[in-house]
Write a structure and sequence with these properties.
277 residues, five-stranded antiparallel β-sheet, 2 domains, 16% helix, alpha+beta, ten-stranded antiparallel β-sheet, 19 strands
Length: 277
């Protein structure tokens, strides 16, 4: 990792004192689209530790570094520190990418990944850059029903569990190309939306980790991603968060010894910028 990691990036620092909601507090400092994007990205990071709709407190403090490139609509939080009164501690997350990672991730000060990952044997998609939505997030007045994995169009999509394909390509205007699989033994159905290509047919039996399609940007979708949904067979209103679902196994990565010095150097660069910014 070069010592000048931040030198070629258009980065900004931001300090937010929470006065009411997170959104109100961020938008009091920055405005327009940047405000909404920053709030959403901060909330996604915090959602691994607390309920953003319930646990944000007046007096909380967020300090962050982010890069913003309006020309290609790129924004990324590079470092976030969040002092939570609810948790009674300060959360820290640092963006880092090794040469062996296709996409980077966020790690605490000790090099432990703060975002859980699904084990490949049950993961609907294995190669993605970030999770951009979780079940229950409020969008346009209603709750989001699935988990969105940001991924390049054409990325392989897999059946999370064995089961029978119950339908494909329904409500295409909204869902795009899509697949639904019934899993009676798990008492759920899994849905895979906005695909670029479907590789299975209705009535077909598929095994766990079978390739069922390619991710895309079809239907009501604003960027390439996979919308993955786990629905109860008994209650249409019950949707499970895959990271809390008992049949999905999770893990988190740790910075290996090979890259630990590079990681610590990069964290020091972040901290130095926060002290001077």
């Amino acid at each position: 990792m070069s010592r000048g990691f931040l030198e070629d990036k258009e980065v900004r620092t931001l300090r937010v004192n929470v006065k009411s909601s997170l959104s109100f507090s961020v938008c009091h400092i920055v405005s327009g689209k940047i405000c909404r994007e920053l709030t959403a990205r901060i909330a996604r990071k915090l959602s691994w530790f607390l309920n953003v709709n319930r646990d944000i407190r007046k007096g909380d403090r967020a300090t962050l570094i982010y890069e913003h490139q309006p020309a290609d609509n790129h924004m990324r939080i590079l470092k976030l520190q969040y002092r939570s009164r609810y948790l009674g501690k300060t959360l820290e997350m640092n963006f880092f990418k090794t040469p062996e990672m296709h996409h980077g991730s966020y790690f605490d000060s000790r090099g432990r990944e703060i975002i859980a990952r699904l084990q490949d044997r049950n993961a609907p998609i294995r190669d993605y850059s970030e999770i951009t939505a979780l079940p229950g997030e409020i969008r346009q007045g209603s709750g989001h029903s699935g988990t969105d994995f940001k991924a390049e169009a054409g990325t392989p999509v897999y059946a999370s569990f064995e089961g029978r394909v119950s339908r494909v390509n329904w409500n295409i205007k909204k869902n795009g190309l899509c697949v639904e699989i019934d899993h009676p033994d798990k008492k759920v159905k899994t849905l895979y939306l906005h695909l670029d290509r479907v590789l299975v047919r209705a009535g077909q039996w598929v095994g766990r980790a079978a390739k069922i399609g390619l991710s895309g940007n079809t239907g009501h979708s604003f960027a390439p991603h996979l919308h993955y949904e786990i629905k109860s067979r008994d209650s249409k209103k019950t949707v499970y968060n895959p990271f809390h679902f008992k049949y999905h196994k999770k893990y988190s990565r740790t910075i290996t010894r090979k890259y630990r010095k590079d990681f610590l150097d990069q964290v020091r660069q972040y901290d130095s910028l926060l002290q001077t910014g």
